Amino acid sequence: MRLTRHAPPPATTEQPQQGQATQPPQPPQPPQQSMLQRSPLALGYIVTLGAVGAIITGFALYGLRSIIFMVFLAMFATVGLDPLIRWFQRRHMSRPWAIVTVILLLIAVIITIVWVVLPLVIQQIQFLATAIPKEVANLRAQGWFDPANASSNGVLGALVNWVSTEVQKPEVWASLGTGLVGFGLSVVNGLTSGFFIAILTIYFIATYDATKEAGYKLVSASRRPTFVKYSERILRNFGKYLSGMVVLAFFNAVYSVILLLITDVPGAFLIGILAFFITLIPLIGTVLTTAAMTVLAFIHSPVSGLVVLIFMLIYMQVEAYILTPKVMGKAVQVPGSVVLISALAGSTLFGLPGALVAIPISAGIILIIKEIVMPRKELR
User: Fold this and answer.
1) Which of 131, 140, 147, 130 lies closest to 161 in space, CA to CA?
2) pTM over 0.70
3) Are the C-beta atoms of residues 79 and 201 closer than 8 Å to each other?
4) Using CA atoms, how far apart are residues 217 and 221, in angstroms rounded to an integer?
5) Over the chain, what is the mean pLDDT?
6) The pLDDT value given to residue 19
7) What pLDDT shows up at residue 313?
8) Is the dihedral of CA 348, 353, 358, 363 positive or negative?
9) CA separation for the pair 104, 98 (Å, rounded)
10) Whole-number Å distance between alpha carbons of 260 and 300
11) Among 75, 97, 78, 76, which residue's Cα sits nearest to residue 88?
């Protein structure tokens, strides 16, 4: 059988159909260039503007640091007063009436401080400035002082001289007034700042629920229930921590005043007020007040110093094993190392008020780690 070979069909180009326009060939697109390659000058100008804006913002925040700090104090006070509002609610009081009651109590406290506490503090400061040098002179006149000073290689005498010299310096009392009245501010603008903090606290208390609801709406709806759940737990425990520390500090201050009055140590009321603010710092606050009270009582009388030391040590044990578990309850506990680091950092930045604020912030961070970070790590 004869096979025939067929030639392959000729290659044809596709002809455009009638009515279809031909597309001209597109030129190759150049590679995209970054802004640095297109215009280095414009990029440098934008970066410079950003740096200048950041510097101006930093200076503005630094200039407003006192106002920002007072706003933080008002926010902490609001969160700390929320457990008191809930306590009134558990006594069958509606939340609006509970808020009004707490605001009236806060106003009463402010009026008491202005009309009673502040004049008494000024009077006690003036009294101590003249009483302590006399107490030191009486201490040196006693027969046992010189042998005790010789046995301590002059340490006892140096300590007494230092106390006698420091109490006569006006700047020492000004610094005490800073921590007492103005929370880090001077005595001159302490009342104004305190009034500003009180007004902010009253406003924050009145709008606490509305502010929280507005903040929750900023979170996406899919994640909002989880966010609200954890936020409410954190704020509730945070408030218990703050209110618990205030209650413990109040107990310490009252006990200190009673003990100093019994031992006839001068300036008992002023020392008690200072003890209230210092013992807001957990773990180290009571130790600092015990040391200061013992030294002042010792200058008054060795017997008074010994009595104050013994009874303050007893109170420290009662506070650690009875009062703290009862008052703090299930509120977050701050480890001792975190307390020391937070107090040191806060006091370095803002003095005593900085130490008071830094520890609740640390407690909040620890609570977030316990409530959010650790449970999520366990699920992985």
Assistant:
1) 140
2) no
3) no
4) 8
5) 75
6) 53
7) 92
8) positive
9) 10
10) 11
11) 97
CA distance 109 to 216: 32
8 Å CB contact between 297 and 263: yes
Candidates 355, 324, 357; CA nearest to 341 is 355
Return the number of other C-beta atoms located less than 10 Å from residue 83's C-beta: 18
Site of tokens 């046995």? 151
Record the tokens describing residue 373, joined without a space: 């970070």
Q: Please name the residue that has the structure tokens 């501010």.
A: 185
For residue 212, the one-letter residue type is K
Encoded tokens for 167: 């109490």
Token pair 């903090």 is found at 197
Torsion over CA: 326, 344, 358, 288 (sign) = positive
For the chain, the C-alpha Rg in angstroms (whole number) is: 34
Residue written as token pair 């030191």: 136
Q: Which residues of 352-372 are buried (b: 16+ CB within 10 A; e: fewer)?
A: bbbbbbbbbebbbebbbeebe
Give 38-80 pLDDT, tens digit per residue. Answer: 666 777 778 888 888 889 988 888 888 778 878 888 888 888 8
Can you tell me the distance from the alpha carbon of 54 to that of 46, in angstroms, rounded to the nearest whole number? 12
Decide if 364 contacts 238 (C-beta within 8 A): yes
User: For tokens 């961070």, what's the residue?
Assistant: 365
Cα 138 → chain centroid: 42
The string of pLDDT tens digits covering residues 147-165 is 766 666 666 666 666 666 6
CA distances to 184, 210, 248, 255, 329 from 323, rounded to whole Å, are 29, 34, 7, 13, 10
Provide, for the chain, the percentages of residues in helix, strand and coil under a 3-state DSSP scheme, each rounded to the nearest 5.
80, 0, 20
